[in-house]
Amino acid sequence: MSVGVFLVTYNHAAPLPSALGSLVGQRHLAQVVVVDNASQDGSAQVAEAFASQLPLEVVALEENTGFARGANLALGRLATPWVLSLNPDCRLTEGFLETLLAAAARHPEVGSATGLLLRGVGDQLEASSVVDAAGMVVTAAGRHLDRGAGQPLAARFLEPAWVFGATAACALYRRQALEDVAYPGGEVFDEAFFAYREDADLAWRLARRGWRCLFWPQARAYHRRGLRPERGRDQRPEVNMHGVKNRFLLRWANADWRWHLGCFPFWLLRDLVVVAACLTVERSSLRAFSLLRELRGRQREKGRWNARRARVSTGRLLPWFFPPWQTRRYRPCA
Q1: Domain span holding position 237
Q2: Fewer CB in 10 Å around end: N or C, the chain?
Q3: Which stretches of 209-265 are DSSP H helices?
Q4: CB of 64 within 8 A of CB of 10?
């Protein structure tokens, strides 16, 4: 078994050496692809300095194409049966790939897997005991959350579990699963998202096709994270705008009438809050609605395509959106 790793960078020169350095010596590592989205801080050059230590390819783009496009470009260059998506501000611990791969490979239905992500501190991504993500959970309000984000490390985050999905900050994917949910033409991460929520979209598509996500806390990494969900709105208008836009793109691609009925009125109330915020305190996000008008037809077609190919009914997926079923106990033989 071999693993290919990809990183999409945009002005990440400071933490990037820690992220790439953590790949040196990892067992089963076969390829590393860094796609740089026209960074102005020399991120591409920082990555190239690791060429003598890693099986590395650096792709320097002339413009910022967003995470989704960069990830798809990287996936096209990887030829391994397993792929790790790694943020440039995320540091793996020793033996991370070997541990997570061994756990995931035991189950043929596992399409993605995630370890325990703790908050990294500073550019060296030093260890802390604050949880960054213990898998992804989803809610009836149409939100997706990193389980345990910002909370102190506790016993419940130290048990393996089945979760809805994995944050792309550090997610292991089975190549077969990615190919199974890729759109015609090979698009794995939906490029309409540009950045943010594209990993939740991928998780939902994988779940509808019957692939499972395994949370395995024995594999650990440290993630600094620029956008922290427990803080609410981000201070960068572009981030907030894409967050609003992608909220609706996510549903158009994955949520049918059964989901809307089963999760009513929670998603409607959240929609009203989002729209009200855009009309008052976050007017810079109003541009999201003009983009949504342009993208609506194509995204609805993706939704119909996903619905035609679904193997798991909405009724079976609905419990994931309500506590206490947002995680499922892991049983080695289950």
Answers
A1: 231-319
A2: C
A3: 237-254, 257-262
A4: yes
